[in-house]
Design goal:
Elements (H helix, E strand, L loop, with lengths): L1 E3 L7 H10 L4 E3 L15 E4 L5 H11 L1 H10 L4 E4 L1 H4 L2 E4 L16 E7 L7 E9 L13 E7 L1 E5 L5 E7 L1 E9 L2 E4 L7 H13 L1
Parallel strand pairs: 1-2, 1-3, 3-4, 4-12, 5-6
Antiparallel strand pairs: 6-9, 7-8, 7-10, 10-11, 11-12
Length: 207
């Protein structure tokens, strides 16, 4: 059973539809306790969605999902972040202005920050070539420089480049996917990326 985290963000239906297309049983996670590594009914977790970094983190902290996600990842259980689900793995974001003088931190499971694109045409919306790095598990068997669908204004900048699983270019070359142990996350939307996206999801499910 695949668990899909629903913290109030949009774009969850398309993820469920993609999993249904792959004939994979999945359901929304009802509460943070279901993410306990010792007793969770789920084999793998997907954290999809779009939205604002600070708003999302406030919601995750308030609901208890933030700590539950950290514990799941710390236990090296299979996890896939999509779009904001990638960005929130980092420590800070230029999108998150301090609230009452306090900086809003991300989940901080990957050292690094999330930065705004330097150009004027922001957000990036549409298809973009994605170059996987050798040895990536989630990109295994996909054509070189496959196209995936992106929509975002900020990009991840990990401190340790070795966690980067793929890169793309929009004003600058940047990391658009990370892998570390059982943790994987992508900036693009595989559930909206046609055959390549379905192939990537299938790879992740089979790891």
């Amino acid at each position: 059973m695949i668990g899909v985290i629903d913290y109030g963000a949009g774009n969850l239906g398309s993820v469920m539809n993609a999993l249904k297309r792959l004939s994979v049983p999945a359901r929304f996670i009802a509460e943070p306790d279901e993410l306990s590594p010792a007793s969770s009914p789920y084999e793998k977790i997907i954290f999809p969605g779009d939205g604002h970094f600070a708003t999302a983190m406030v919601s995750l902290n308030k609901s208890g999902y933030a700590q539950a996600i950290r514990e799941w990842i710390k236990a090296d259980r299979p996890f896939l972040g999509i779009c904001i689900g990638l960005q929130l793995l980092f420590e800070t974001s230029e999108e998150a202005a301090p609230v009452n003088g306090r900086e809003i931190k991300g989940l901080s499971v990957i050292p690094g920050t999330v930065k705004r694109f330097p150009g004027r045409k922001v957000p990036q919306i549409g298809w973009n070539q994605t170059t996987a790095r050798p040895g990536s598990k989630i990109f295994k068997g996909l054509a070189d420089n496959s196209f995936f669908y992106y929509i975002h204004s900020y990009y991840a900048a990990p401190d340790d480049d070795s966690v980067c699983a793929a890169e793309t270019e929009y004003y600058l070359r940047y990391c658009c996917a990370v892998e570390r142990g059982a943790l994987a996350a992508v900036q693009f939307h595989p559930e909206k990326s046609g055959a390549a996206g379905i192939a990537l999801l299938k790879n992740w499910l089979e790891i």
